[in-house]
Amino acid sequence: MDVGQIGAAVLSTPRYMGADQNRLRALPYFSYRWANGWFIDGLNGVGYAGSPAPGLRLGAHVGVSPDREESDDPALDGMGKVNREAEPGIFAQQRLGVWLGGNLSVRSHLRYGSGEDRHGGQAELGLGWGTRIGERSLMNLGLAANWANQAYMQTYFGVTRAQSASSGYEEYETRGGLRDVRLSLTFIQLFSPTVTGLLTVSQTHWQGEAADSPLVRDTRNTLAIAAVLYRF
């Protein structure tokens, strides 16, 4: 069966990766999933997902990598612009069973194509645990780690010689490695068969050379999302 969702969300997000201040935004949301496995949504772009075995979900998609503007924060003055790029990816999720009264799953996500040279790549591995906390209420906990290659790290956390000259930061060359560890908590409230409320809070802890970057003003970034969605 085809399923679509429209709605609105209010987001509090870091001004850039490693910023010490957040910005508040209101955005529309749209997603649609066809019965044959194709989907489009505001998080993963356009893609296809299927379930070749019980509890296993595999998929591929083309999303968009994050951009960055000097105007996003005074700390970025002289750093230039990072453009959005098409970012293909593949993902997998496997249900592991019931643990402590909730459903435990493991997931992985590979993405490639970000950065100025479009060679930036990421690999994410995470655990999820979800349970009902009421007749119409759900809670999900998540723990994930993200690794990035040198091209990605240099784009978002490095400082080239030219950027050093224009920004005043010391030149900073990065290598690939562990980028961050992220904790997340999500509450879902089913108001009716067609209307859902969602609240998500996550905290990212920057690691390694990402945390040591002169651009990183805070090694812990918090993101919060509140949304109301209508299913059709």
UniProtKB/TrEMBL annotation:
First and last residue of the signal peptide: none
Keywords: Cell outer membrane, Membrane, Signal
Gene Ontology annotations for the cellular component aspect, listed alphabetically: cell outer membrane
InterPro entries with a match to the protein in the record: MipA
Coiled-coil features, chain-numbered ranges: none
Compartments it resides in: Cell outer membrane
Major location (coarse): membrane
Similarity-based family: Belongs to the MipA/OmpV family.
Protein name as it appears in the record: MltA-interacting MipA family protein
Source organism phylogeny: Bacteria, Pseudomonadati, Pseudomonadota, Betaproteobacteria, Burkholderiales
